Amino acid sequence: MKYIIAVIQPERVDDVLEELTKREIHLATVSNIVGRGRQKGVAEVYRGHVEAGSLLKKAKLEIAVNEDFVDKAIEAIMAGARTGDDGSIGDGKIFILELAECIRIRTGERGKEAIG
Amino acid sequence: MTAIRFSWGIAAVATWLFGLPADLMAQDDVPAAIDSGDTAFILICAAMVLLMTPGLAFFYGGLVRRKNMLSVLMQCYFIIGLITLQWVLVGYSLAFGPGELIKGFIGNFDYVGLKGVGMEAKGTIPHVLFMIFQGMFAVITPALIVGAFAERVRFSAMCVFMVLWATLVYDPVCHWVWGGGFMGADGALDFAGGTVVHINAGVAALAFALFIGPRKGYPDKVSPPHNLPFAVLGTGILWFGWFGFNAGSELAADGIAANAFVVTHVATAAALVTWALLDWIINKKPTVLGAITGAVAGLVAITPASGFVTPMGAIVVGAGSSVICYFFVAKVKGKFGYDDTLDVFGVHGIGGVWGAIATGFLTNEAVNGTAGSFKQTMIQVESVAITAVYSFVMTMILLALVNMVIKVRLTDREELIGLDLSDHREAAYTLLD
pLDDT tier at B20 (50, 70, 90 boundaries)? Predict the structure, then answer.
């Protein structure tokens, strides 16, 4: 089992979820976050002052999957989160972690059965 | 221009000929009957002017960081309480007392505790109504200064400062212009308080910002406004209340009050559009904060002029205010390095100065009997300069005095934690439901 964390552009969340659905991955946790990367800030204007934002709004997706779905999940995130034909700086990153256990609270099922 | 101001002119001239509104702001002992229409109108106006301070609280609150939201609301609301008490106990007497402790400079103690301020007529309204209408002005003026020191002031020190400032700065300046003091006698035109309220508060704001120093991390590491919709709502409340402020300053429900209402609205509209256009041209997008800042700049500038200009003159006053304030806030202020958190000086100070001077050359004989002239403009400049110098020097002195007893600025740690927690032990927003 793997735990996939993707930090993406907030406006790509719907596209990524759609791509995941196409590949029969229905479970995901989404949160609004701020962060920074090489992209730097989108300048915002306040009373005529152009202020370079230091932290940018991003969305974080967290998905727990069985081994069979890891590649599909990556494919879906890449397809949904890329902006423009070749992607752009700031499109985000995917992190994949080993997942030690997964337990469904309602039934007490563990591992592969619990995750889907 | 002539055609459009014509109808207003007739109303104003008629009022003038029949001699209804003698200068009610000045002290006059002419016995007059209470007029029910005027009384009803000013009762409503007083309530509208009160609402401006909560509006201001939300205007300011939306522009600060999340961790300082409550502190700004509390500073504004506490000033409503504190200065209302100061006003009925001593402030009204110092501003409008029947005699003068220092000739032309300040009233006396005859009205302390509202002794002798009752239901008898003052002009055509009850004296006690005049007192509370003026009291709402006395409340919002110190509250305006809050924007300059937001996010770093110690609450207790602020309270002491505000009572001193109201007593030793607002009350005398109010007396100079409206209470029978030297400025009104010199012929300076200030219909609804451009000098008394906005220049006075704006300059005090500059002094306070210089005294207290910039916020930690200013200018590069200070977060943007945490809730612009609150600022937009606050502006709407200010705009609404300002009709009571300006039209009510006629102290009668008559043609001049109606003219003041119209020019207030027109100037604000012109200023809102102008600031947004400047944003659009210079920074490529019309910003919401720009539009509402423009509206406030217009409201400020039309305040002294509202009893004297035509609606067409109001467009000049409003649009001019946005142009001047925009360039001051966006281009000039940054070069000086002081941190007037919410641009109280940039909008109320600069907009107020523009409004006072513009009143000198745009005042129209048909509206209120005074024609614009170079001489009048110079009288305006003089009243601006005297008020600005007095307000600046006194604010600095009062801050130095308060600072000897209570540190005006919070510690770095308290400032970083945020004033909601460090000054009030509360949080504006919970994270969990």
Answer: very low
Picking from A48, A51, A53, the nearest residue to B329 by CB comes out as A48
Map out the domains of chain A with their CATH numbers.
Answer: 2-115 (3.30.70.120)
B389 membership: H or E segment, kind and range: helix B374-405
Domain that holds residue B220: 33-404
Q: What is the pLDDT of residues B99-132, one digit of tens each?
A: 999 999 999 999 999 999 999 999 999 999 999 9
Chain A CB contacts of B278 below 8 Å = 48
Query: What strands lie across the sheet with A56-65, from one edge to the other?
Result: A29-35, A56-65, A2-8, A92-98
**Looking at A46-55, B61-70, B202-211, which range is the least confident one?**
A46-55
Q: Is the pLDDT of residue B356 over 80?
A: yes
With pLDDT > 90 as the criterion, what percentage of chain B qualifies?
83
Mean pLDDT of B229-235: 98
Query: Is B423 part of a structural domain of the chain?
Result: no
CB contact under 8 A, A48 and B331: yes
Minimal Cα distance from B224: which residue of A?
A46
Span A6-14, mean pLDDT? Answer: 94
Chain A interface includes B334 (CB < 8 A): yes
> Please, what is the Cα angle at B47 between B42 and B51, to 5 degrees?
140
Mean of all residue pLDDT scores within chain B: 91
Q: Which pLDDT does position A52 carry in this prediction? A: 63
CATH number of B222's domain: 1.10.3430.10
Q: Does B352 touch chain A (CB under 8 A)?
A: no
d(CA B155, CA A76): 54
Bridge partners (DSSP) of residue B137 are: none
Residue A46 and residue B225: Cβ atoms within 8 Å?
Answer: yes
Kindly determine whether residue B287 and residue A53, on different chains, have CB atoms separated by under 8 Å. Answer: no
Question: Does some domain include residue B146?
Answer: yes
The ipTM is 0.72
Query: Could you give the number of structural domains in chain B?
Result: 1
Q: What are phi and psi of B204, to 5 degrees?
A: -60, -35
Q: Residue B13: inside a domain, yes or no?
A: no
User: Residue B429: inside a domain, yes or no?
Assistant: no
Is B282 an interface residue toward A (CB < 8 Å)?
yes
> DSSP class of residue B167?
I
Q: Sign of torsion, CA B306 B309 B310 B312?
A: negative
Q: What is the pLDDT of residues A75-114, one digit of tens each?
A: 999 999 998 888 888 899 999 999 999 999 999 999 988 8
Partner-chain residue, chosen from B224, B225, B326, that has the shortest CB–CB distance to A48: B326
Q: Name the residue in chain A with its Cα closest to that of B327.
A: A48
Is A47's CB within 8 Å of B331's CB? no
Q: What is the pTM of this model?
A: 0.86
For residue B357, give the H/E element and its range: helix B350-362
